[in-house]
Write a structure and sequence with these properties.
There is one protein chain. The protein has 3 helices and 6 strands, in the order βααβββββα. By secondary structure, the chain is of the alpha+beta class. Strands 1, 2, 3, 4, 5 and 6 form a 6-stranded antiparallel sheet that branches. Strand 3 and strand 4 form a beta hairpin.
Length: about 140
């Protein structure tokens, strides 16, 4: 069973859907990113402040598996858990349609840090994420 460390409820907006009446695939990346940003905010970290300090967490790779489409007006919950692999932080993110909790998307997002313009480990994230890492 997945041990999620953060979740965020959202609702599909009309303009996020394509001609088929389902959420366009590209919009799922927005949902995933918004969830990661809100997770950071919940830990007291601001992306703007990080950038001002020369720390830029960036996405290195995303793998998304689409399961059940979301439609306009659908409410959903985006959940995440986290692991560390070398200098990468890997977010395992799942989106569930509400209220039936049907899996809509399963994603793996690999992130790295660019510190002062160079790919680097981040002691800030190592300390910040330590309580959320589960083996």
């Amino acid at each position: 069973m997945d041990k999620y460390i953060f979740e965020l409820r959202m609702k599909v907006r009309d303009y996020e859907c394509d001609l088929q009446g389902i959420v366009n695939n590209a919009n799922y990346q927005h949902y995933l990113e918004h969830t990661r940003h809100e997770f950071l905010t919940s830990t007291g970290i601001s992306f703007a402040r990080l950038h001002e300090e020369g720390i830029d967490p960036v996405v290195a790779r995303i793998n998304m598996a689409f399961k059940t489409p979301l439609r306009s007006g659908d409410e959903f919950v985006s959940k995440l858990r986290l692991s560390k692999e070398g200098i990468k932080y890997v977010f395992y993110q799942d989106i569930f349609r509400l209220p039936d909790m049907k899996v809509s998307l399963k994603a793996t997002v690999e992130t790295v840090c660019v510190v002062g313009g160079r790919l680097s480990a981040s002691t800030l994230f190592d300390e910040l994420f330590a309580p959320y890492l589960h083996e």
